[in-house]
Design brief:
Pfam families: TACO1_YebC_N, Transcrip_reg. Residues 79-235 form the TACO1/YebC-like second and third domain. This is Probable transcriptional regulatory protein FILTAD_00489. Belongs to the TACO1 family. YeeN subfamily. It is found in: Cytoplasm. It is a single chain. By secondary structure, this protein is of the alpha+beta class. It has 3 domains: 2-72, Orthogonal Bundle (Arc Repressor Mutant, subunit A); 80-129 and 202-233, 2-Layer Sandwich (Alpha-Beta Plaits); 132-201, Alpha-Beta Plaits (2-Layer Sandwich), CATH 3.30.70.980. The chain has helices at 2-16, 19-36, 45-56, 61-72, 103-115, 144-153, 177-185, 209-223, and strands at residues 80-87, 93-100, 120-121, 131-140, 160-164, 167-172, 194-201, 228-233. The strands form 2 sheets. Strands 3-1-2-8 form a 4-stranded antiparallel beta sheet. A 4-stranded antiparallel beta sheet has the order 5-6-4-7, with helices on both faces. A hairpin with a 2-residue loop joins β5 (160-164) and β6 (167-172). The radius of gyration is 18 Å and the shape is globular.
C-alpha cells in the first residue's frame, strides 16, 4: 500500500498551492453535511469527520464556521451528491465525486473533461468495484509498532500500518475513522499529516510517460471543475 500513500501525498501537495479552491470545496461539503443532520460537529459524526479532514488542509476556522452557520440559517441551497466513473489513457480508471445544484451542467462538464483528454465516461459501477473505501491517517513522531500497540490497547481494528521515512500510515475501514482518531487523541496526538476518507485502488497501473502527461491533464481538468469534490484514480504516478 505504500505507493498509494505517495499518490495521496502528491495530490494533497498539488492542492496546497490552490487554497481558495480547497476552501470552497470544503465549505460546500461542510454545509451539505451540516444541513443533512445536526449542524454541530459534536452531535453529527459525519460533520465532525469532514471538519477534521478540513483541518488537515489548513482550512481556516472562519470558513468552517461560516458553512455551519449557513446550514443553521435554513438556506434553501441544495446539492446532489453524484459519483461519476470513467476511463483515461491506457485503460486507467477514475472516480469523480461531485456536489452539484445543476446535474445536467455537472454531467456535461465531467464528460467533456474526460473526452477532451483521451478518456471517456463509464456507467455506474464500471470502475468503483476496483477501489476500496478507506480511512487513512498519517502521523509523525511514532513508530509503526508504537501505533499498533496504541490501537490494540484501544481495541480499534485497522487494515494495515506502514512506516515510510518519518511517517506512519494507518489504513482502516471508513466507519473506523472516528475510533482511530479518538484512540490517538487519548495519548495526545491531535495533529496529522493526513486524515482522509478516500478510495484506494486495489491495484495500481503504471503507464508510459507520454500517457501520464495526458492523464495528468485529464485529472487537472476534472479537479478544476467547480462541482467536483474529489477525484480518485489507479495510476502509479512516476516522478
Amino acid at each position: 500500500m505504500g505507493r498509494k500513500w505517495n499518490n495521496i501525498k502528491e495530490k494533497k501537495a498539488s492542492r496546497d498551492g490552490e487554497t481558495s479552491r480547497i476552501y470552497a470545496k470544503f465549505g460546500r461539503e461542510i454545509y451539505v453535511v451540516a444541513k443533512q443532520g445536526e449542524p454541530d460537529p459534536e452531535l453529527n459524526q459525519a460533520l465532525k469527520v469532514v471538519v477534521e479532514r478540513a483541518k488537515t488542509y489548513s482550512v481556516p476556522r472562519a470558513i468552517i464556521d461560516r458553512a455551519i452557520e449557513k446550514a443553521k440559517g435554513g438556506s434553501e441551497e441544495n446539492y446532489d451528491e453524484l459519483r461519476y466513473e470513467g476511463f483515461g489513457p491506457n485503460g486507467s480508471m477514475v472516480i469523480v465525486d461531485t456536489l452539484t445544484n445543476n446535474v445536467n451542467r455537472t454531467a456535461s462538464e465531467v464528460r467533456a473533461a474526460f473526452g477532451k483528454n483521451g478518456g471517456n465516461m463509464g456507467v455506474s459501477g464500471s470502475v468503483s468495484y476496483m477501489f476500496d473505501a478507506t480511512a487513512v491517517f498519517g502521523l509523525e513522531g511514532k513508530t509503526a509498532d508504537e501505533v499498533l500497540e496504541l490501537l490494540m490497547e484501544a481495541d480499534v481494528e485497522v487494515r494495515d500500518i506502514l512506516e515510510e521515512e518519518d511517517t506512519v500510515i494507518v489504513y482502516a475501514e471508513p466507519d473506523q475513522f472516528h475510533a482511530v482518531q479518538e484512540a490517538f487523541k487519548t495519548v495526545g496526538i491531535t495533529e496529522f499529516t493526513i486524515a482522509e476518507l478516500t478510495m484506494l485502488a486495489q491495484n495500481e497501473l503504471p503507464i508510459p510517460a507520454d500517457a501520464q502527461i495526458q492523464f495528468e491533464k485529464m485529472i487537472d481538468a476534472l479537479e478544476d471543475l467547480e462541482d467536483v469534490q474529489q477525484v480518485y484514480h489507479n495510476v502509479e504516478l512516476s516522478e
